[in-house]
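batch job 7 of whatever, protein = Cytochrome c domain-containing protein
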Amino acid sequence: MKHLVFVFSFLLLIGCTEEKQNLTPDEPGEVQVITGDITDMSKDIFYGYSSKGEHIVKYAPDGEENATTRAVGAVVTAKSTPYGSIGLNMIEKKLGKSYVVKCAPCHDDYANGVIGPSLLDKDDKQIYQMITKYRKNEEKNTLMQRFVNKMTDEEIREIAVRIKEFNDEVKRSGL
């Protein structure tokens, strides 16, 4: 018992003899501002912004895309998006020009839906039927009706097949 009291007293004395730390801050320092040239990004032919306000890199600044600029864009996209595991060939095609111009504003570049419904779980027959319903006025969506009425059956089928092929690629990649 004497040993226990002795150890407890010793620990109490050690705990009480600690030095108090100075908690006041040091003198404030100075901030140096380094001036440099201001870069006007609006004149840069390689950088810009999409209609959604997203930063984009232009691989064909003169507007002329070719196989090389599409391939470079596909590689960069593949490495910087969640679609990176999808084959570069599919990203490079981006479901075709007709899809990008007529469908992507509502269904997004990868058919995953933004304003319009997602098309990722649909096959070509379902997509074709969905689109042609607007031609028959079975679905009430003025914008879709206007787009569909200007499209040929062949163009509708081509878009539906491209979306199905893209969906198959997504399923194979495990996304």
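notes: DSSP finds eight helices and two strands in the chain.
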